[in-house]
Inverse folding.
């Protein structure tokens, strides 16, 4: 039903633009205004994202008590831990963590999985928050030696 209403509205606008020259001019002005507003919103959003990335040094973020447990299927793991915000004045809004699984046998380790997880948690300056995320791996892992998990912060967003 909604598709029919939209189709009828488009047809009415096209007919009005074809038969009424004054309406055609107003339609172009309105369209230019809408495109300008959309472009401004996209530009401001990109600028805000860039500023959020550039203000916060990664050295002010630490991970503690990191663990990975099997999840709901063979490719899913639940990663838990604590994120510490050592910044004296910046809030943390989002932390992106890289999780690496190494297969270690006889002092030789090979990376068998590497994925990124996003923790969206507001952490005030000087505080810490516990988190839990589900991390799907791109393929199931088959460990032949001993599995070693590695966790590191690769990106942050502050507010």
């Amino acid at each position: 039903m909604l598709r029919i209403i939209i189709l009828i509205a488009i047809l009415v606008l096209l007919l009005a633009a074809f038969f009424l020259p004054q309406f055609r001019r107003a339609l172009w002005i309105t369209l230019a205004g809408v495109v300008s507003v959309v472009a401004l919103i996209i530009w401001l959003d990109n600028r805000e994202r860039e500023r959020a990335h550039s203000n916060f040094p990664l050295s002010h973020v630490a991970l503690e008590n990191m663990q990975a447990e099997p999840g709901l299927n063979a490719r899913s793991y639940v990663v838990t831990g604590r994120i510490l915000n050592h910044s004296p004045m910046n809030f943390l809004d989002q932390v992106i963590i890289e999780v690496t699984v190494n297969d270690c046998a006889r002092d030789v380790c090979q990376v068998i999985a590497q994925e990124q997880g996003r923790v969206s948690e507001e952490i005030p300056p000087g505080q810490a928050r516990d988190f839990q995320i589900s991390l799907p791996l791109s393929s199931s892992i088959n460990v032949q030696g001993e599995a070693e998990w590695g966790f590191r912060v690769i990106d942050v967003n502050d507010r």
Summary: The chain has two helices and six strands.
